[in-house]
Amino acid sequence: MTDPRRIALVTGAGTGIGRATSLALLKAGWSVALAGRRREPLDQVVADAGDLGQHLLAVPTDVGDPASVDALFAAIDARFGRLDLVFNNAGSGAPAVPLDELDFAQWKKVVDVNLTGAFLCTQGAFRLMKRQTPRGGRIINNGSISAHTPRPFTAPYTSTKHAITGLTKATSLEGRAWDIACGQIDIGNAATEMTERMARGILQANGETMVEPRMDVQHVADAIVHMAALPLESNVQFMTIMATKMPFVGRG
């Protein structure tokens, strides 16, 4: 079937930034495919959407697994017939320990989700966006403040988020010929379950522990809706949205 609304895919859609963004896009007139590792949080997003839930498609997905991503895009194509937006949001971290104490499985898990997952979903989006009519679409990558500056003991997360910036640039370049725009949003201290430790106090580069300010996650969702609403002739290449008083400028 086809859907008269524009079609978005959000990964990591069951919680946090992904959940807030999915609901914001839905309210802004989009239909949204919800991808996440666990079905229960995805189904809860559909339930929370009320009557608008009819415009949501929940697809449990392991973004680091090519077969799972292929099944995700096949489901999107079968339900909606096209795709106009991808928000590569799924992310994972590793224990906050010195890099020489990380084992390979911990490193690989972060790379598989944060980097390989974004690549596979970008690849799937290209294949669909290049052949649909009208062709093209937009991809937004979640880069994080860690795409610029690390926190202590975050080598896997910081490495993958720096790599996302390279993927964003490469995608932007290759997408030009096919009317595929790509931008990146770098988010700092949105108030989600993932950042609750910042409200309790988190290690700083100078060895001290301090409480960091956070911001309402809805501000992030609204920013992504703005990026997504632009015509394909325009693109927000990079946006940083952060809690105003978080220690980023001058970190370390």
Can you describe what's shown?
The protein is α/β, with parallel strands linked by helices. Helices cover 41% and strands 18% of the residues. The chain contains seven helices and nine strands, in the order βαβαβαβαβαβαββαβ. It has helices at 16-27, 39-48, 66-80, 104-131, 155-175, 196-200, 217-229; strands spanning 6-11, 30-36, 56-60, 85-88, 137-142, 180-188, 202-203, 209-210, 238-242. The protein has a seven-stranded parallel sheet, with helices on both faces. The radius of gyration is 18 Å and the shape is globular. The mean pLDDT is 95.
Keywords for this structure?
alpha/beta; globular
- Percent in strands: 15-25%
Shape: globular
Task: Specify the helix fraction band.
Answer: 40-55%
Number of helix segments?
Answer: 7
Nearest-integer average pLDDT: 95
What's the SSE pattern? EHEHEHEHEHEHEEHE
What structural class results from the helix and strand content? alpha/beta
* Side-by-side strand order of the widest sheet: 3-2-1-4-5-6-9
The biggest sheet amounts to: 7 strands, parallel
Low-confidence stretches: none
Distance between the termini: 53 Å
- What is the number of beta strands? 9
**Alpha-carbon Rg, integer:** 18 Å
